[in-house]
Amino acid sequence: MTRVVLIAAPYPLDECPSPPLGLCYAAAAFETAGAEVHLLDYIVREYSPEKLREELTAISPDIIGTSCVTMNFTGAAAILTEARAICPDAVILMGGPHASFDIDDTLAHYPAIDGIVVGEAEETLKELTDLFHQRETWKNIAGLAFRRGSTVVHTPKRDFIQDLDTLPLPARHLLPLARYKALGFPVSIITGRGCPNRCIFCLGRKMVGFHVRQRSPQRVADEIESLLAMGFATINIADDLFTASRKRVFAFCREIKKRGLVFNWSVFARVNTVDEELLRTMMEAGCTSVSFGIESGNTEMLKRVRKGISIAQAENAAALCRKVGIRAHASFIAGLPGESRETLEESVALKNRLKIEYGFHHLAPFPGTTVREQMADYDLTLHSNDWDLYDADQAIVSTSHLTSAEIDAFVREDALPIHQAWDAARARCESGTATKDDELMVLGNRRMHLIFKLLRRDLLDTLSPLPEGLKKALHSAAEILAGLTDETPDFTEFTLKDLVERGWVTFHADQGTGRFHWAEETPCPEIGHRKKAG
């Protein structure tokens, strides 16, 4: 049986890491093809070369793979380079949007990577499962790029999967789910693939096609039921455009209500695809949040980036969300082609009129985007190909009107009231004058950062044997963990106790001492790390 290891590369907390959906689809494709699949998750577990060596040596995989976006590409590629040294005979693959659109450079700079799975991966991986060791046959597998000597072979583009209901559900059972539930971010699903729009800064259309292919509401509801049974209560629908079909949105909502499924869910939509009836129906089925990519408050800019919306449509969508009672968020991009102080001020004026939550992000010209491939046609200068900087949190472009430093300064200036309000809320918490909302916001953020430290540094595993009784063990563990996380012992104990009460952390006592560990994980003395029980 083919042994496969898939690796979830580290991802920053600021990006709200949730169970890696694409990698779980890849794992399910391998399992469907009869492979034995392991998923090494370094998003919510500590990564080190030593741990990687232990885990790969214990499995001895035939295939090692990962999927990544531009922001964590460098780290993912470094892990695959380490994996090559550990498993010199394994086939090493990379997939995801970055690798799919930066094939030649990726294979040139990272010789450890044998091949790239281009675009939609499931059918390609199923074919590779039986043929991975027959490299002479790779040229016949659509959707692959691989090195042959000093040249790169690009096989024909693979057709998109038309019936998404034929896909197995993502193999989330391979993940350390208790850790994700403790972290508290929504779990993502897709109800369809494809984006009919042509925004010059986005990869959606190129990655999954312009024709929207949709899963049946029944199949999606089956997956939601499975997630609720796993203990997740908040779901993010990660479609590029959930509201592409009004008729299908209504069908989805009817299926949710028919089954009596109760959960909170969020979506991405466009301001020209919503109306009051649609939003109200979504809200009644549990939708709590809608995110709109508005990008700019300047009409000419919207035309330049091929956004396909108007200012009036943005204002109408925001007003409808406020009327219906759905939380709405507007995303703006700073540093678009031809950006000036005046166009940025128009964006500020628009977000003020919308009266909904918003955020400014920096333009990141990802490989494969029109804006990157045709940059000479736009008023833009690119200042970095350091992929670690492509997190949309800093300016890496300039225009003829604004330097990158000026774009950075604008975003910082606009965000200043948000930071000041946050500092004031923290000060009220410290002085004992906080409102309930203050406490929920500040303590929730503090709890999230503490839990992320426990996860990413595997700190529960570092604890020495503790007193046998749970109460004493909690107190002793909190004293140790507080020193490792720069937290107070009281808050650490409160948080750890809550994790135990929720069942995400368990306590095992044996012969007078006890240990904490994440649910469904047990000590594995043979290889010195924790693994899934059973």
UniProtKB/TrEMBL annotation:
A GO molecular function term, named singly, is:
4 iron, 4 sulfur cluster binding
Q: Which residues form the B12-binding domain?
A: 3-139
Tell me the superkingdom of the source. Bacteria
Tell me the CDD domains matching this sequence.
Radical_SAM, radical_SAM_B12_BD
Q: Does the keyword Hydrolase apply?
A: no
Please report a single Pfam family linked to this protein: Radical_SAM
* Cofactor(s), by name: [4Fe-4S] cluster
Q: Which residues form the Radical SAM core domain?
A: 181-400
GO CC annotations, alphabetized: cytosol
What keywords were assigned to this record?
Iron, Iron-sulfur, Metal-binding, S-adenosyl-L-methionine
* InterPro entries per the UniProt record, alphabetical: BchE-like, Cobalamin-bd, Cobalamin-bd_sf, Elp3/MiaA/NifB-like_rSAM, Methyltransferase_Class_B, rSAM, rSAM_horseshoe, rSAM_sf
Database matches in PANTHER family:
ANAEROBIC MAGNESIUM-PROTOPORPHYRIN IX MONOMETHYL ESTER CYCLASE-RELATED, SLR0320 PROTEIN
What protein name applies here?
Answer: Radical SAM superfamily enzyme YgiQ, UPF0313 family
Q: Organism source for this protein?
A: Desulfoluna spongiiphila
